[in-house]
Amino acid sequence: MPRMSAEERRESVIRAAMHEFARGGYYGTSTEAIAKRVGVSQPYLFRLFPNKLAIFLAAAERCLRDTREVFAVAAEGLQGEDATHAMANAYTRLIAEDPDKLQMQLQMYVTVAAAEAAGDHELGELVRKGWVELWDTVNVPFGGDVNETTTFMAYGMLINTLAAMGFPPEHRVWEGLYPSARTKGRLEA
Predict the structure, then answer these.
(1) Measured between alpha carbons, how far is residue 150 from residues 8, 48, 67, 99, 103 in Å?
(2) Cα separation of 186 and 95, whole Å?
(3) Beta strands of the chain (E only): which ranges?
(4) Which of 8, 15, 52, 61 could pair with 4 as two cysteines, CB 3.0-4.6 Å apart?
């Protein structure tokens, strides 16, 4: 088997970090657990990233980028209600098929709040920047309509909450969501 390049190893670390941080959060995840998941030593991990925060930032950035790309691809060439349903379907499939994406998002918000409370704003700046890019990606197919974008993002946060709490797809709490997201995204995934 050929050796991995440093960039390939870095990618492995980001994927492993996303999984570990999604499960344990920033404060509950050790760099040892990340290194073990990748199959490298901690010293090698720190040759790729200067510290634990840099690893978390890379994982957070990747999570937001992946989510943004899901929305952009789903809405390509669509507008309004068609874009709404396409993005809702794509997002609910994403979090059903890759629960780490949802859990990582939730861990980002908790970690930002804790960091901000402690006076550390670096993480918050990165996550807010990524979230604004996510907002802007969703805003385009809605023709810049802030109300439509707000409604869509609010539904998305509700979906995050319901999914994180483990409500089964057939539960009545899902009934008020976009019908295509509720049936296609949750039941077929």
Answers:
(1) 37, 38, 17, 24, 22
(2) 9
(3) none
(4) 8
